Amino acid sequence: MGEAVLTKARIxxxxxxxxxxxxxxxxxxxxxxxxxxxxxxxxxxxxRPGEMAVRVPIPPEVLTEGVQTVLLREAGxxxxxxxxxxxxxxxxxxxxxxxxxxxxxxxxxxxxxxxxHCLETTG
Length: 123
Description:
- The chain has one helix at about 95-120; strands spanning about 5-10, 15-20, 30, 35, 40-45, 50-55, 65-75, 80-90.
- By secondary structure, the protein is of the alpha+beta class.
- Strand 7 (about 65-75) and strand 8 form a beta hairpin.
- The longest helix has 26 residues, at about 95-120.
């Protein structure tokens, strides 16, 4: 199995669309505030072997004042493949809140992995 690469194609009508290459058998999950979002689909792209079209509907609860980040991860490994940052309300110049939100989400993922590792090695 190769390493999965997820490339954004566009966001249209509230749906993030991208192409998964490198590991077409990988499953993509969308995570917002630690919870998986429903409705993620993957379909083979005709005439492009080994590539999958990935569609992630953005639910209304993500559209909240401020900066929100949806992580697109490889299910199972939890490896982040991409992210969607959505800014609503009045944006500030050179707003770094999106980056901070992404760092928080990744730090939470690392904390869970580290705690799991500690439990496995001591227990």
